[in-house]
Amino acid sequence: MKITVVGTGYVGLVSGACFAEVGIQVVCVDVDQKKIDGLKNGIMPIYEPGLEEIVKRNYAQGRLAFSTNLGEAIQGSEVAFIAVGTPPGEDGSADLKYVLAVADEIGQHLSDYMVVATKSTVPVGTGEKVRNTLQQALEKRGADLPFAVASNPEFLKEGAAVEDFMKPDRIVIGVDEARAEEIMKRLYKPFQLNGDRIIFMDIPSAEMTKYAANAMLATKISFMNDIANLCERVGANAKMVRRGIGTDPRIGNKFIYPGVGYGGSCFPKDVKAIIRTARQFGYELKVLQAVEEVNEFQKQVMVEKVKQHYGKDLSGKTFAVWGLAFKPNTDDMREAPATVIIEQLLALGAQVRAYDPVAMKEAQHLYLGDTVTYAKDAYDACVDADALLLVTEWHEFRIPSWEVLGKLLKDKVVFDGRNIYDREYLKGLGFEHYGIGV
Ligand code: UDX
To answer: Which of this chain's residues are annotated to bind substrate (predicted)?
Structure first.
C-alpha cells in the first residue's frame, strides 16, 4: 500500500513516519525544499521523542521518502493526507488557503481513484470545500476521475505524538462512500490490534469531533483554574480538591491540573475557531467564551503573585524562569504562557534569566529575542536572581537541590506555576512557596 502525506509539520511528519513504521510506503511532501533536504539528511524540523529514530530507520529502509513534488508523489497512492497548517486568520477563523491549494494541486495531477483525507484541524464544512476545489481542478483539465474526500482528525499530543499515533485511543474517520471506508480500514488495521478502535462517521461529524474534543479538554483546564483561584480565596487546597473530584470516573483525573493556563498550537486556536464558527451560524458558545476568558486571566496569575510579594515596581529585581515551552517534552513555544509571564515581568522593570531544556533556541529566535538572559542550566538561571518562577514542569525541575538554590537565590522564594513542589517541605527549608490554588 502506498500513501502520500502533504505537510511535514507535527501531524504530517509523525503520521508519515508511523505509517511507514508498520510497512506502508509513504511519501512525505512539503513545499519547503530546505526542510525536505534536512529530513533526507536526518535533520528533524521539530523535537519529538522517538521521532528521529523512526524517520531515519524508515528512510534508510526505503519505506519513507521525502519530496517537494506533490504531482509525482501521489501517483499510485491510495490515500493522500492533507496535513498542512491552518493558521488562525485575523478574525480567529482557520485560514484554509494552504489546505485548498493542496486540494487544487492534487486535482491537477490525479490519475487514479484516491481518498483525499484532511488531517489538519479544519472547520466543519472543509471536506466539502476540498471536494469542490479538487473537482474544479479536474474539470479545468477536462478529466473525469472518481475520488473520495475524508476527514481523519489527529488527536496526538506533542511530546507523546509517536506513542499516541502507534497506540491510539480511537481513530475517527469521516467518509461518505464504502470504497473509501474500505481503504481507510485497511490503512489503519495495524494500529488497532487490540480491538476495533475505528469510529466511522459522516464527514461533518468527524470534523466537529476534533473541535469538541479539544474544546472539552480546554474546558476542564479552565474550569479547574477557576476553581483553584477560588480555593485560594476561601482557604481550600486545589490539590486536594483535584484528587477529591478526580476519583469520580465520570470526571476523571486527567486535565484537571491547575496551572498557568493552557497553550500550544491546538487549544487556543481551536477554541477561538469553534467560537467563530458558531457565530457564523448565529450561535454563541457561551461556555467556551468563558473558557478563553479564564485562560487569559490565568496567564496573569503568576505575575500577580510576584507583585503581591514584591510590589508593583520590579525594577532592580531579577527572576529566574524555569521552563519556556508551553508544556514539557517539546520545544514548541506557540501560545506558551511563559512568553506572557516574561513580557509582564519585563514591563514591570524586572530582568529575567530563563532556562528551558530544549525550547531556548525557539524562544530566542521567534518570541523573546534578547530581552532575557538564556542560562546554561537550571542553576545558572538562579545566579543573582531574587526568586524562582517555575512555569513548565520539565522532569529535571522536579527535585532540585534546595540547598544550592538557597545559596544562589537572593530571596528564598518560589513561584510554582504548576504546583510541583511541596509547600510544607519547602517551608521547613526556609523557602516561601506560592502555588496555584494552594
Ligand atoms: C492537545 C490535545 O491533547 C491533543 O489531543 C490534540 O490533538 C492537540 O491538542 P497538545 O497541544 O500537544 O495536545 O498538549 P496537551 O498535552 O493537551 O496540553 C495542552 C495545554 O494544557 C498545555 O499548555 C498544558 O500545560 C495544559 N494543561 C494540561 C494544564 O494546564 N492542565 C492540565 O491538567 C493538562
So the answer is: 155-158, 210, 255-259, 263, 327
Q: What is the ipTM of this complex?
A: 0.92
Distance 157 CA to ligand 1 centre (A): 7
d(CA 372, CA 351): 7
Nearby residues of 123 by Cβ (< 8 Å), 6 or more positions away? 93, 94, 96, 207, 273, 277
* Separation of CA 214 and ligand 1 centre (Å): 9
| The one-letter amino acid at 55 | V
Mean per-residue pLDDT for 150-172?
Answer: 94
Is the CB of residue 157 below 6 angstroms from any atom belonging to ligand 1? yes
Q: Whose CA is nearest to atom 8 of ligand 1?
A: 266
Query: What separation in Å is there between the alpha carbon of 366 and the centre of ligand 1?
Result: 21
pTM for the predicted model, two decimal places: 0.92
Of 192 and 53, which is predicted with more confidence?
53
Instruction: Tell me if 259 CB under 6 Å of ligand 1.
Output: yes
**Which domains can be identified in the chain, with CATH numbers?**
2-201 (3.40.50.720), 267-434 (3.40.50.720)
Q: What percent of the chain shows pLDDT beyond 70?
A: 99
Nearest-10 Cα torsion for 227, 229, 230, 233 = 160
Residue 313 counted as an annotated binding residue? no
Instruction: Give the pLDDT confidence score for residue 121 in this predicted structure.
Output: 86
Residues 6+ apart with CB under 8 A from 293: none
